[in-house]
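stage 2 :: seqdesign
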């Protein structure tokens, strides 16, 4: 028995020493920040805004790698296929790590295969509508949607593809409001907005940048409601959809964060968490991202990151089951 205890304590001691050693030596070479979309998109802008600052805090170059495909699934699978050593960081969101596995049969990972290290942005959501859409607030939207459904001409909503965040929001809104809406999937945000501008589709619930705000200001689009709990800085005259008693609790946003393989050593995760927290607190980084209509939350402890990711996973899986989302 004594021999067994000695062996056990020896193994534990070795692990502690190994972990401490990793914390002291990591990173010993360049780190890759994996962006699951092509260069030029919002995700890529975030990564290239902060990679030099992250490099400064880690003491090693941080290289941005873009790898699109399968709603972010190809990049995520590459991270899981690589050693769980912290040298490959996935910059993602619920769209790639929670929703994509529920909608794409070719994706074999689960959200639990990743660990959220730190958030970097929260992107508010707004409902955009064609410029002649006959509703300018939550009450008018619900009344028009009900009338349109009764007339067998349901309100159409655009998404960036089946199983995407925007698709789930549309189905969830349809169920919560008790009104039929028709899903119109696109292969990306650009063609969806083009059809919205042309009046080919009625609405789209989406994150936004300054260009979308400008389209609303110029009267090219309308913004009947926002999906936040309160009015937003860029849409101060637009009420929350959740103001309606029937839709209380219909509050959503899209956030981006940094993930690693769940088996990454704790010591390495701690190093990355510290560096990423310092990046999120950097005044220049915050100003740059906020100038692009993003919200940069204050960094949170790892335990809070674990809770937030787990809660998001549970919430979206419930919605997916309710709409009978099947992997295609």
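stage 2 :: out
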């Amino acid at each position: 028995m004594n021999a067994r205890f000695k062996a056990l304590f020896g193994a534990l001691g070795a692990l502690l020493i190994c972990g401490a050693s990793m914390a002291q030596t990591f990173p010993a070479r360049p780190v890759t920040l994996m962006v699951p979309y092509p260069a030029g998109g919002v995700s890529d802008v975030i990564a290239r805004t902060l990679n030099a600052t992250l490099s400064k805090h880690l003491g090693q170059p941080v290289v941005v790698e873009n790898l699109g495909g399968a709603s972010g699934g190809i990049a995520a699978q590459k991270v899981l296929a690589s050693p769980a050593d912290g040298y490959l960081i996935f910059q993602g969101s619920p769209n790639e790590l929670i929703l994509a596995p529920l909608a794409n049969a070719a994706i074999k990972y689960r959200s639990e295969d990743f660990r959220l290290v730190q958030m970097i942005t929260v992107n508010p959501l707004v409902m955009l509508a064609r410029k002649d859409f006959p509703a300018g607030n939550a009450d008018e939207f619900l009344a028009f949607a009900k009338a349109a459904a009764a007339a067998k001409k349901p309100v159409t909503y655009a998404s960036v593809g089946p199983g995407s965040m925007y698709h789930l929001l549309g189905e969830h809104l349809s169920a919560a409001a008790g009104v039929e809406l028709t899903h119109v999937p696109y292969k990306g945000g650009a063609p969806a907005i083009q059809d919205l501008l042309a009046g080919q589709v009625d609405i789209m619930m989406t994150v936004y940048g300054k260009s979308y705000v400008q389209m609303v200001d110029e009267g090219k689009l309308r913004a009947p409601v926002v999906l936040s709990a309160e009015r937003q800085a860029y849409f101060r005259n637009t009420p929350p959809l959740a103001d309606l008693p029937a839709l209380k609790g219909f509050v959503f946003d899209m956030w981006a964060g940094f993930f690693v393989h769940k088996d990454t050593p704790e010591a390495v995760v701690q190093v990355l968490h510290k560096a990423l927290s310092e990046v999120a607190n950097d005044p220049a980084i915050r100003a740059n991202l906020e100038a692009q209509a993003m919200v940069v939350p204050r960094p949170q402890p790892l335990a809070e990151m674990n809770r937030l990711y787990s809660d998001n996973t549970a919430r979206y899986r419930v919605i997916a089951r309710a709409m009978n989302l099947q992997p295609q």
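stage 3 :: structure notes
- Residues 2-25 form the longest helix (24 residues).
- The chain has a mean pLDDT of 91.
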